[in-house]
């Protein structure tokens, strides 16, 4: 059974959190509330999230400061952040959002359909990345087990490598199609950069699989850590 992705909603106003939950409930994922930047950082200590929706104007630690803390942590620095703001101070304010590490910057009131579509893209990328990590971990365990068993299991690693390679190829094809779709729709640079980040991770997995192929001198320990 595939676990649901977690989406972190950060806003100091309860009515805004309720509105976000109503908009995103159709995605059928786990929605986690945080009413302040400090509360958001605590949630990020224990749980993994597919994407963060972060209000800019909050008392105490605002959205920019919260994002800076998130990006400084190795565990959380790659989580996509979508800034939400009721105030539009022009290009400089928007640039500050992207400089803080946001993948998107949306002014309120926003189109619910657009927000839901943007979030769904990051959820899908997160789920695919999680699946690849799980498959890589299973492959590593299988290879380690076969190394101890010897003889009768010698042919199994090759079969596992082929299966994992085929699955990875399917995800690579989907990632390439997503990148082309973003280009075709003239998406903003942040969304394109996020898709490129996923492609780099897929490239790392592909290199690891290639290193595991017989005769390359690689081993199970070369699989890269995925953040």
UniProtKB/TrEMBL annotation:
<feature type="coiled-coil region">
    <location>
        <begin position="161"/>
        <end position="188"/>
    </location>
</feature>
<dbReference type="Pfam" id="PF00072">
    <property type="entry name" value="Response_reg"/>
</dbReference>
<dbReference type="InterPro" id="IPR001789">
    <property type="entry name" value="Sig_transdc_resp-reg_receiver"/>
</dbReference>
<dbReference type="InterPro" id="IPR050595">
    <property type="entry name" value="Bact_response_regulator"/>
</dbReference>
<protein>
    <submittedName>
        <fullName>Response regulator</fullName>
    </submittedName>
</protein>
<feature type="domain" description="Response regulatory">
    <location>
        <begin position="6"/>
        <end position="123"/>
    </location>
</feature>
<keyword id="KW-0597">Phosphoprotein</keyword>
<keyword id="KW-0175">Coiled coil</keyword>
<dbReference type="InterPro" id="IPR011006">
    <property type="entry name" value="CheY-like_superfamily"/>
</dbReference>
<feature type="modified residue" description="4-aspartylphosphate">
    <location>
        <position position="55"/>
    </location>
</feature>
